[in-house]
Design brief:
- With 173 residues, the chain is α+β, with helices and mostly antiparallel strands.
- It has seven helices and six strands; from the N terminus they run ααααββββαββαα.
- Helices cover 47% and strands 12% of the residues.
- Helix 1 crosses helix 2.
Length: 173
């Protein structure tokens, strides 16, 4: 977030700061995270091309960019409602991180797990299987091993995973 966004966030969270302090905090963060700010700058090409290629090779498209906004698909928006959204480097970064996590968990790990065990539910970065009780521990061990192994297109990515065994999804939390 920029100073204005950070100030708004603090207000929402009930933290009292002024614009000068918001600017100081944002600049301190940016100085302490040079790799993050380099990545933001690397994302500037999206403003010209309207698309981003993810490490998996999948393309994310930002249609009809005009220098400040893009046409954001909102399938449940009422007719006539403006569905344009402002964009900034943080949005592109967040979208890339979330989409890459999806590609790893749902398009890679879930497919591998489903080849051995019945996948019954996926929620964000969670994969849920339903197996007989006597297979539960070996299933969990395999799932954790699989989810700690990055796909070939991200072989240096450090991944970790954890899991639980329970009679129902609610008890796993």
């Amino acid at each position: 977030a920029g100073p204005g966004g950070y100030l708004t966030y603090c207000e929402i969270m009930g933290v009292e700061i002024d614009a000068v302090e918001a600017e100081r905090v944002v600049q301190a963060y940016r100085r302490s995270k040079p790799a993050v700010t380099r990545y933001w700058r690397a994302l500037k090409h999206i403003e010209r091309t309207g698309e981003q290629v993810l490490p998996s090779g999948r393309r994310m498209v930002y249609p009809d960019m005009d220098g400040e906004t893009f046409q954001r698909p909102k399938p449940f928006a009422p007719k006539g409602v403006d569905t344009r959204s402002r964009y900034w480097h943080g949005l592109f970064c967040e979208n890339a991180v979330q989409a890459t996590a999806r590609d790893i968990t749902l398009a890679h790990h879930a497919v591998l797990i489903a080849s051995k065990y019945p996948v019954v539910l996926m929620v964000h970065d969670e994969i849920v299987c339903c197996v007989p009780e006597d297979e539960a521990q070996s299933c969990l061990t395999d799932m954790i091993r699989i989810m700690r192994t990055p796909p070939e297109w991200a072989e240096d990515l450090p991944l970790d995973a954890e899991g639980n065994i329970a009679d129902n999804y609610g008890e796993c939390k």
